[in-house]
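Why do we care about 3D structure at all? Because function follows from shape, and shape follows, mostly, from sequence. That is the central idea of this module. The next example makes it concrete: a single protein chain, its amino acid sequence, and then its structure expressed as tokens.
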Amino acid sequence: MRSSTLYPLAAYALGIRLATAAAVLGAQAIIPHAAAAVDEAALAPAAAPVAFVPKAKTVIDLGVATDTFLNRDSCGSVRMGGRTLWTCRDTQFNRPNGLPELRIISSTASWSDDGDLVDGAADPGSCAELLASGDVAGAAEIRNKLLPSSGRLRMYGKQSGSAFFPLLDGQCNSNQAGLCPDGSRYTIWPDSPPMAVGSAAYTWIRKFRVNGALQPFVVDPGTALYKVEHKEDGGADAEALPSASVVKGDFWADHEISYGAYGNVVHGGYAYLFAQLSPSGGAGAVALARVKADDGPAAVEDRSRYEYFVAGSWTGNMPRQADAALVAVPNASAGGQGTYYYSEAWGRFVWIGQAGLRVTAEFFVTTSPAPEGPWEQPVPFYTGAGGNYSLSAYSLQAHPALVPRGCDGQAMVISWTINNLIGRDNVYTTPLALVVWDK
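And the structure:
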């Protein structure tokens, strides 16, 4: 994006959740969760020690995930219908010279194919063979096996020019950026990867509106629930993207805890939904809810079926933002954006992401035997390259859907957004790297 257009939002992102009465500069903006204040108490060691901290043996640069026609940032992914679905935040179409147009679309989606990465190994069923040269000397060999297409994971799909997650009525939706005549903006951005349940996927998006002074109209706004569906046509139109519809525009009302917006993981018949408390409550503490995923999409869409983790047990009574001391799950993240998933090989729930208030690609990891904890204290394991702009790198994600078959517990694919200023244009890239875990 042109720096003159992006900079206010970038500054706003840096001000997310600096929770003081004098200056609350906003809520998750260009960097999902990145500006959440780091709660030192939340990062303190859990009361019960956990004896598992994964360590990276090496991290191998694979290339980039890209649709050459688009300039966009903050992409997450989920497995859907035999392919990988990506959802991203602010997007622009590129001009013939490769630089972006000025017009902004608040969200877009793309596909990527297994053949470009997951099945790219000579023997995709043998992770041991793939990682046999898992050191610096063997990095090129592994990279060529996994991503032979000149270091590019092709993202594709027909773009309509409209926001993938539709702007709601009243959200200045005469344009696809949510820009209002008074200079304010609705920042309708996905903060975490979609959650797949059955044939559908779900995304919770908080409905922030910020004014020209970079202040949110509501510090802890309501949250909309979107449903993503795709009708397979036997490959007749592989470029067709799924559709996203609004289940309920205020699934969580203003000032309620935004369960699901911070992250999700489906395991053991349940969908676990993570939230990060707002400055009006716990200022970055992580809260947890669950719903029976085995009951299908209808359960996810019905609030009456939800349970909430409060004071060490599950209850049907939803807590408040002010109940931080009762709902906080210590160490469930490092305070910034990231990805939750479950590793069968480790028998652990995992979070990989960034610390709050960071604009570098410093990755942290924490694990737990249960979503409720006890979680390990998050530890850093890798720092990726950054760009030349003040918002150098952000939107750190893990991509379980891209892990080569048989590599669970041995490797993970990660990505982040790099922001470079080229002339007057902000240009974004999404690097991919393979983390090889130390055994």
